[in-house]
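A note on notation is needed here, since sequence and fold are reported together in a single record. The reader may check this reading against the record printed directly beneath this paragraph.
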Amino acid sequence: MARLDSLISKYRETIATPWSAGVAAPQRVIFLIYSPLDELRLRAQFEEFKIATKEAGHGWEHQDLTNAFSSWMMEHEYRESYFKRPSMLMRDANGDLAEFSISLITKLRTRIDETCDENTVFALSGIGSLFGFMHVSRLVEGIRDRVHGRLVIFFPGDLKDNHYRFLDARDGWDYMALAIKAEDY
C-alpha cells in the first residue's frame, strides 16, 4: 500500500504546482506509473486523486476505459460476424484495431470538448483493457491536443530511461510526458 500512498502524495504535490499557460500538448500529459499488480488497489483510491485535484483548484473529469472495447463491439452492426471470424477485424500498420481506435479517440475528443477547459484534469484509467486492441501511444497522441488543462494517464507498467513499457509485456515507446512513478517500483 505504501507504493500507492507514495503515488498519491507525488501526484498531490505535482498537481498543486501552478500550471504554466501556453505549454505544448505533450507537456500537459502526466503518466501515473504503477505496478499492474496494484490495479485493484489503485481503483479503490481514485477518489484520492480527485480530491487532490479539487484541493489544488482544478476540475476533474475521469473516464474509465475498462469496457471501451466490449461496448464498442456490442454496438457494432457486424459484431456477430466478428464473433464468428475475429480475423475480419482490420488492423492498421501499427497493429491497432483501426475502426475501434478511431471510434474511441473520437468519443474521447467529444467528451473532452464537452466537459473540459484549461483548468480541468482529464484522467484516463482502465487502459490495461486496451492491450491487444490499441497502443496507448496512439490513444495519447489522438487526444492530447484537445486537452487544454492536463491529461492524466493511469499507466500500469514501467518507465526506464524515458522508455514506457505497457503492462510489463509490450515493448514501450519514448514519450516526453511528465512521469510520476510509485515509489519502490
